[in-house]
Amino acid sequence: MPVYNGEAFIAQSLDSILAQTFGDYELLISDNASSDATAEICRGYAARDPRIDYQRNDVNIGPNRNFNLLVQRARGEYFKLANADDLCAPELLERCAAVLDHEREVVLCYARTRLIDAEGNSLGDYDDNLDLRSPSAVTRFLGALGAVRMVNVLQGVIRLEQLKKTGLLALRPDSDVLLLVELALRGQFSELPERWFFRRMHSTAASALKTFEERQVFTDPQAGSTRGLRTWREYLGYASAVLRTPLSFGDRATLLYRILRFALGARGTLHRELLQVVRASLRGSRT
């Protein structure tokens, strides 16, 4: 559970995890130098339950670095991200772990999503459409790219060994999409039919940030909003994921070709981004 200034909802989220019917887990909390009552709340829970390991960063390292830190700290066979404002039904861990136990080809198992507001009231159902059961890595990759929007499924249960082999979260917005498609290269996704994941939509959530620049500052507060070449980084990230994953020669060639075709379709944007970087560099050299 990565958290930053989560006092409004973290107790509910912790209660949701501690109420799971599957109890053989450790709950790692990484507090990103919160300035509210998050630390006090977490320490109180940790004092009452030995499964909780609470640690606090000295400074705000951003949510992506914080997530990556938790992946490296994790020791179990499976990994579940538990955001500090969302909830899950008591059966979620048990059912997801059972699928992973019995289906070795599955790398991620998740429950269907219901959106809720700040008070926990239903805002309606959301269909992730990421039940990727094809044996073909190419088909899963393209299926993930075509369907992914809210990336709720990353709060399912993931094989930790495979997760640690990915590039994890890059220091830019929307890198959760890249992580998702890389996981799809590594194995199948299995969707439980029940709506056991409850994603909270509220005004202080990261999803409420409107512009790319706002999301960049939130993602990497140490670098600010200076990162450019957004589309270049996106396509190079996909290519890196393909090269990092053990695939057949044919699958790797097919995927790299498809990524190149996507990039050619966006060549106008790629050209504009490159010009912006060159112009910024020239202006900098003149000052």
Brief description of this entry?
With 287 residues, the protein is of the alpha/beta class. It has eleven helices and nine strands. It has two domains: 2-219, Spore Coat Polysaccharide Biosynthesis Protein SpsA, Chain A (Alpha-Beta Complex), CATH 3.90.550.10; 230-286, no CATH class.
Structural description of this entry:
The protein contains 11 helices and 9 strands. The chain has 287 residues and is of the alpha/beta class. It has 2 domains: 2-219, Spore Coat Polysaccharide Biosynthesis Protein SpsA, Chain A; 230-286, no CATH class. Strand 2, helix 2 and strand 3 (52-56) form a beta-alpha-beta unit. It is globular. 36% of the residues are buried.
Name of the CATH first level of the largest domain: Alpha Beta
What is the name of the CATH superfamily of the largest domain?
A: Spore Coat Polysaccharide Biosynthesis Protein SpsA, Chain A
Sequence of secondary-structure elements:
EHEHEHEEHEEHEHHEHHHH
Low-confidence segments, given as residue ranges, are none
Instruction: Tell me the major beta sheet.
Output: 6 strands, mixed
What is the distance, rounded to the nearest whole angstrom, between the alpha carbons of the first and last residues? 44 Å
Summarize the amount of helix as a percent range.
40-55%
Mean of residue pLDDT? 94
Number of distinct beta strands: 9
The CATH architecture designation of the largest domain is Alpha-Beta Complex
Integer tally of domains? 2
Shape estimate: globular
Structural class from helices and strands?
alpha/beta
Strand percent estimate: 15-25%
| Count of helical regions | 11
Radius of gyration: 20 Å
CATH topology of the largest domain: the name is: Spore Coat Polysaccharide Biosynthesis Protein SpsA, Chain A
